[in-house]
Specification:
With 181 residues, the chain is α/β, with parallel strands linked by helices. The chain is built from 5 helices and 8 strands. It is 28% helix and 29% strand.
């Protein structure tokens, strides 16, 4: 696995050494970043269910200002720390070992980009989007990128947040969501 574009282009990333964590494929990452903008200018990013941190690191490489990495699995946290250290992006990164619910209910931060890449067996994605909406964690012009198994579905409208685009790549479905008008 590697960083696709930006300042850290072609740098290799460590993967979480566990069958419980699914790593994101380069073609899925490319589809995501081609859809939300190839480069950024000072965005604040939340990588929820971060795994190796690949999505947040890709956003930082493309110009995001800050990334917050959330995972509750110790091997994932260890891998994120190693990837951050290897790329020397510690100042732009915050790594928190906690459950997604604890973080979402406690954070006071707003994010311009929120990556949701939970385990494919997780059925609480709509609940997560509801919490993000109710707590106004997504900035007014922000975007949520949600990855899930293609046989699953999520609501296309959820408490003011709407799906504006969807892509399918292999077994992965990607929903792009933002605040509705």
């Amino acid at each position: 696995m590697r960083v696709i574009a930006g300042f850290h282009r072609s740098r290799l990333l460590l993967e979480v050494n566990s069958k419980d964590t699914r790593e994101i494929k380069d073609r899925v990452k490319e589809a995501i970043f081609n859809s939300i903008g190839p480069y950024f200018a000072n965005e604040v990013v939340l990588d929820l269910f971060a795994g190796s941190g690949a999505l947040g690191i890709e956003a930082l490489s493309r110009g995001a200002n800050k990334a917050v990495f959330i995972d509750n699995y110790y091997l994932a946290i260890k891998t994120i720390k190693q990837n951050i250290e290897n790329l020397q992006i510690k100042d732009e990164s915050t790594i928190i070992k906690t459950s997604y619910l604890d973080y979402l209910y406690k954070t006071e931060e707003k994010f311009d980009i929120i990556f949701l890449d939970p385990p494919y067996t997780m059925e609480e994605i709509d609940q997560i989007i509801t919490i993000i909406s109710e707590r106004e964690i997504l900035s007014k012009k922000g975007v949520i990128v949600c990855l899930y198994e293609k046989s699953n579905s999520i609501k296309d409208t959820n408490n003011g947040i709407i799906e504006y685009k969807q892509k399918r790549i292999g077994i992965t479905k990607i929903s792009f969501m933002k605040w509705g008008i």
